[in-house]
Amino acid sequence: MVSAALLLALLAGVQARADNAQVLKIITWADYVPAEVIAQFGKETGIQVQVTLSNNEEMISKLRATGGAGFDLAQPSQDRILGAQQEFRIYKPFDTGKVRLDEFVPELLDIIRKNATIDGKLYGLPYIWGTEGLIYNSKRTRISDYPDLCKPELRGRTAVRLKRPTLMAFALASGRNPFALYDNTKAYTALMEQVGKTLAACKVNFRFFYDNKDQLLNGVRSGEIDAAMMWDSGGWALNRANPDIKFINPRSGAIAWMDTFALTARGRNDAAAYAWINFVMRPEIAAKVARSVGNFTAARGAEALMDPRIRAQFAETFPDGLKNIKWYPAIPPGLEAIEGAILDRVKAAD
Predict the structure, then answer these.
(1) Can you give the pTM of this predicted structure?
(2) If DSSP states are collapsed to H, E and C, what string results for the chain?
(3) What is the per-residue pLDDT across 229-257, written as a single tens digit (0 to 9) for each?
(4) Of 31, 137, 178, 307, most Cβ neighbours within 10 A?
């Protein structure tokens, strides 16, 4: 009887491991894992993909609560890996021998190596990238840099997110480089306080602080908003529908973000995660992802398969390529608490 029970338990364990091997759990952003790509991956590998939509803050919170369990693959922004790993140990390093690194754009891979390497081990790989700049309705106004959102004639007609990108943008426009102060808490705090005062004084110009892209898109389309900070994909979408809406690289520089692949510390299916990464970085698959998101991917050769209209819009916005783009460096532990206090003050300001 004991032997039979033991055998059944062993068989159950084997079956559970087999079931886990056929499921890949990803925590990611909206549109990053298109249904058609999931279907093709399943057809080729037999692996099912389960997707949980999230954002940087939620990803860190969920993985921190479980010690890095519950998911096999996460997709945090590249500047959010180092600090979270140092504080919470929620990721595990990549075995780069299991990844086709030649499928990645070398320059983007170098950025990740700089910001997501700890003790010589790589904790991230590039996936999707884009920029945040400015949009404006050229029939109603003209702007060229972030502080122009505070022009008196735009009172009640602009919008930003009450998030750290807005702090970084206005800091850059002040002539300071906030990223260069990451290792100087006192100087960084002083700069953030200065930016906070600027934003509080500009608050009469902000029609609203938007929480998602659709909220801003609707505000621009309805004529409620004449100018705003916005992601490139949304700005270009507005421009395709209405050429009067322009997305520009601000004089101080657009801020570039990159979302990644990161293996969770206690993920159960690393093999499926590696298979997925190698699959979606194939140029023809990456192009499908790019169409879903509206941004460029880090897959070498995928750009040529992008919508030619988006390629043309990129060239118009960034005629000098990536020269006047500011990439987020890794955020050290503690800085977001400083920024959060500043943002709370702006929100509470009269």
Answers:
(1) 0.89
(2) CHHHHHHHHHHHHHHHHHHHHCEEEEEECCCCCCHHHHHHHHHHHCCEEEEEECCHHHHHHHHHHHCCCCCCEECCEHHHHHHHHHHHCCEECCCHHHCCHHHECHHHHHHHHHHCEECCEECCEEEEEEEEEEEEECCCCCCCCHHHHHCHHHCCCEEECCCHHHHHHHHHHCCCCHHHHCCCHHHHHHHHHHHHHHHHHCHHHEEEECCCHHHHHHHHHCCCCCEEEEEHHHHHHHHHHCCCEEEECCCCCEEEEEEEEEEECCCCCHHHHHHHHHHHCCHHHHHHHHHHHCCEECECCCHHHCCHHHHHHHHHHCCCCCCCEEECCCCCCCHHHHHHHHHHHHHHCC
(3) 999 999 999 999 999 999 999 999 999 99
(4) 178
